[in-house]
Every structure is written in structure tokens, then in C-alpha cells.
Amino acid sequence: MPEEEKLVILNAMKSISSQTCVIFTPLTNEVDFLSIKALRGHSPCRSVFGRTTGEQVMQLGVTPYKNCIEHGTILHYLMKVLGFPSEHRRPDRDEYVVIYWANIISGKRFTFQKLEKEIFIYDLDKEPYDYFSLMHPDPYKFARDPEIPVIFPKNVDETEIEIGQRVGLSDGDIRKIRDAYNCPSDRIRLSNSGEMIRRLSNSNWFWKVLHLIWIVGSKVFPDRGDEPSNPQSTPGLLKFSTMIQKLIVVALVLGSLYSQSDAQLVNYDQFSNALTWLGYPAPSWDQYNVFVNSAGPKGQIWDKQEAAMALTHYIHESDGLRAKREYRCEGNGCPGDYETPGCDVGGQDYYGRGYIQLTWCYNYRAASYDLFGDERLVQDPDSVARSEELAWDTAFYFWKVNVHSQPGVAEGRFGVTTNAINGNLECRGEYVDVARRRFEMYKSVRNAFGLDPNAADERGCYN
Fold it and tell me: Which ranges carry the Peptidase M12A domain (predicted)?
């Protein structure tokens, strides 16, 4: 499995570990273990429910049109492994959703049967039904007619919720894991406490010192069994050396895990400051998790400087990650403003949507083929606004294809990124002042990310 795919899996594990007391550890000599495998050329994603014996396989299919090695999808199957059933199978689900049984394909009706209360490992009486859970299926899953949902939410505004998301853990998911695994209420998040370990693990001297301790421990206390083979040795010293060496192993594993998964981007506080210092509300944990876990694999954004440039544009385009539809067009669709003869589908409007505010039919088509291999975004452009996942995916797609490889981006020239996104209007047109405001925002985001704002490079747009 390529390293970038392993990183996506590690980040999904860390998303759980950083917010609960559940920790994933590398296999040593355990008899029962989870084995995560990528299946090339096959699309199924599957995992057995709960713990089994021996090798328990989580299968992640990878095809040009469906890739299960994505943050939210992996989280879904990890929760399944941890023993969490699908949300729509709760015994009280009829109070919250309606199941359209006639539209379920043959042989799949059993997946919509309610389960007994005892099957659920968390307190159903304490935890309300969660439309936003990673364990809630897509409303169209197993539908005979793919245009008609199988699951309909009750007593809520359907335009305000999105069931079947595969973006990140909901607040309810986190509470359920903590409840099921008896996590202490005062647990410190590993994403913060692990920062020290990560920084140490990135220091050459840290590894040299650990290596030296290991060698010295092995020479001074060569025997680590219950009984000393050297009559001059004592069990107390042996137990002490064993403990020290085990602690070193734990430090090495944790340091490696956090250095791989955290080092390249930012923590939540930095991400939040990037918005709040500009006067916007603090982002959600889901927004943060998607950004740090998908920016690299989906947007080719691997370093902090490029992450600051990308996030600046996403903040600017979406009014602080709040607007997934262009404000002026949300009411009437801005008829006539974004027409592309030969591409447009009747009844659809192609105004700005998502965190990059994707516009024009040809951009929706290109994004659709890149993400899915078909024209589903042309047929339904508003799905980019309805789906949190697509709002991010199209933003990362646009950056990867139109911005990342532009000469000067790798060197940190922010003006080049503005030119790639809206150069005709802001770099060579009448809205140069808008481009200048973007640059001022970028300096603030750099500062939030711990980068020198005075080192921001303005070149590439109006100069």
C-alpha cells in the first residue's frame, strides 16, 4: 500500500483516538487483529461488524471511479469494527425516519430491519437519533429507483440536514464511542498532548538519545525474562530495564504515528484562529478534520505554506466557510450569468457553489469526471452545496488541477494563486482591490498557522 494511502488510514485512526480513549496500535504478536487491505480494481468496501477472532479484514476497494481510501469512509468502517450498528436500525428509528420499503432492491430489505436495543453498545436512552452520524446510510442506498430516496427524515427541514455523510465524526459519534468504551470524562485529547511527542519525534537528537538508552539498557541488563541467567543480576533490575525499554517502544510508536499524521499541516487551534482572527465564526471539528486529512491526498496540498494559501481562498470565496452557495444567486439562480451552450442541462444553474465557489458548467463537468468519472455534477450542480463532502472535494479538485502546479506556487507566491483562481477580474480587471484584500487575509492566515506574515510573497497577480 502506498505511503499516502497509509497516511489517510492513520489520520482516520487518529481522528478517533484524538477525541476518545480508543487507541489503535500496530500489530505485534496478537492472535486477534484488524487487517486493512486495499483491493485494486474492485469497488466493494466492507468490514465485519464488531470484533471477531483471528485476522479481521477491512476491505477498501480502489477503482478509477470509486476509492474507499478516503477519510470519512475509513472512519465509517472503523466504527463498524468498534461495534456500532447503522443509525437507521435503532429500535426507535420510526420516530425520526420513514423507510420506503417498496423502493428497496431485492435481497437488501434485511439491512433496513430494526435491531434489538441490546445490540447497541451505547446508551440509546441518553443518545438521541443522529442524522449526521457516519453510521447513517445515504438515503438512496439500495434504491430500486435511484431518483427516489429509501429513507426520508421526519419532523425536520430536509434542506437543513444531510444524512449519509462520509466526512468526519459527528458530535454524536464521538459521544457514542466515549460512552461505549467508558472513556473518562476528563480525557485529554491526544491531538493536543501528542503535539509534544510529535515535535520530539521530529528531532534527530530525540531518536539518538532513545537509541543510546536502548543500547545501554541491553548491555547493562541483557536478560529480560522473569528469571535472571546471570547470577549477578537481580529481578528488580531486570524488571526496571524491561519497563524502560517498553516505554521507549511506546514512545517510538506514538512519535512515529504523530509525526506522520500531524507534521505537514496544522492543529485545530491554528485552523480556528485562521478564521476567527479574520472576524469569522470558529469552524467545526468536521471542517477541520476534512481539511487536514484531505488537503494532501485530494488537493496535493502537503505543506503549511500552501495550506495557508488554499485556506485563504476558501475563506474568501465562501465567506468564512459559511456560504456553499453564491449569495446573490441563491434565490433565483442568476439566470443568464453562467450559461455555456452545449454543456448546460435544462433547469440547472451553474453559479458558484462549494468552498471554492465552483462556477460554469464546464468546470462542473471537469470536476465531475475527475471525482466520479461521469457527469453527475452537471446533472445536479446543487449537490456541491448540499453535500459537505462535495463542497470540500470540488475545492480540493480545483486547487489540484488549476493552482497547485502553477509556476511560483511552490515558492510561495500568493499572487500566482489569486491569478489562477480569478485573474481576469482581480489581477487584470477592475477588482484589483479585491486581490489586495485576499493578500491581507493571507498574511493573517499565515500568522495563525505560525508562519511569518511579513514573509508573505505578494507577487504573481497585479505586480
Answer: 1-184
